[in-house]
Specification:
Elements (H helix, E strand, L loop, with lengths): L2 E2 L10 H13 L9 H21 L6 E4 L2 H13 L9 E5 L4 H12 L3 E5 L9 H7 L4 E5 L13 H10 L3 E5 L11 H4 L3 E5 L10 E5 L25 H18 L3 H18 L3 E4 L9 E6 L4 H10 L2 E2 L15 H5 L4 H5 L1 E5 L6 H21 L2 H6 L5
Parallel strand pairs: 1-11, 3-4, 3-5, 5-6, 6-7
Antiparallel strand pairs: 2-8, 7-8, 9-10, 10-12
The protein binds pyridoxal-5'-phosphate.
The site of pyridoxal-5'-phosphate has 16 residues, from helix 3.
Length: about 400
Amino acid sequence: MRIYLDHNATTPVASEVADAVATAMREQFGNPSSIHAFGQSAKTALDQARDAVAALIGASPAEVVFTGGGTEGDNLALRGVAGMPAMAGRRQIVISAIEHEAVRHTAQALGKAGWQVDEVPVGSRGVVEPDNLRRLVGANTALVSVMHANNEVGTIQPIAVAAGIAHDAGALFHTDAVQSVGKIPVDVGTLGVDMLTLSGHKFGGPKGVGVIWIRRGLALSPMLTGGRQERGRRPGTENVPGLVGLGVAASLAREQHLPAGDRIARMRDRLEHGILERISGTVVNGAPDARVPNTSSISFEGVEGESLVIGLDLEGVAVSTGSACSSGTLEPSHVLRALGLPPSRVQSAIRFSLGPSTTEADIDQVLDALSRAVGRLRLRGDSRLRLRTAPRA
Ligand code: PLP
């Protein structure tokens, strides 16, 4: 049996979700904007999904805007604020140094279009220091975007404090909560944010569906032009089956997965302790006391992370070096570099991300597989590591 410890890349779809998607595809084929019974049946299904997502994040259903996933939500937040007439006169966007590419590359694109983009650094724990943010934000700031939980090291940011700093300067605040929703309780009111992004496939839902929550009254500019769907904020006929699946995943997350958080954390800790005890030259990256319960980033001295991913795959264990979106690029992780880790530790890092279905037996099997795979790589002296640590031209 293969063991899947890559839940931050994507999650298995729960059977309840797959069944709901299939049923909606067959039975709710109407266009939710049509006024006849077929359309209204689809609209009712969408409304139920909207209610379920709203309940998961403590929002009002009218503030939930369906999107085609996390990347689209992040784009809409940044580009939407950049296009707001009310923000004319403010030309700066501030993001954290460890944002996902969906925010990072969007900010860079806006930078090329004339925006001043600044990155607030994180310390070695991967946490934004409020004073550093305060120093960057001012009368020119339109938007601050800081992710709730990081996808590589799992660190949770002090979002309410950061949002307060943005608001004091008259700026808006967005958080990418793609890696926190479904893992820890998320409440838009408590966080005090203006916009929040989530993605279905990170918590048991289908891929290609997500939400941007937009605080009531915020006139974000839509990215697309078209019909009046989603109250004009996201034109285009909604992906009804996918969104029905998202709704079911949201309910499952609230009823089953969030209460399982402590169990998942215990399993993650069992994995970490086992690795640190059994394998020499290992170290945990990030903030052990301020993480989502399922994530662990560990560096294995003298081993190339990608070689270890392959070695573990051959042992039947799926993990990753970091963001699935950057794998294969051979670019060292910008997240681990932002933590100030030396190149050797960046290149030897592996991300383990557990899920509700992970068992103790899985963890014990992974520990055995790891000991074998690391032992083999160290014995042969990882040649790729030697190549990659050569100074870059
Ligand atoms: N933001 C974060 C923090 C992520 O981890 C991801 C996916 O890895 C995304 C955004 C992008 O989400 P999606 O895959 O739904 O476009």
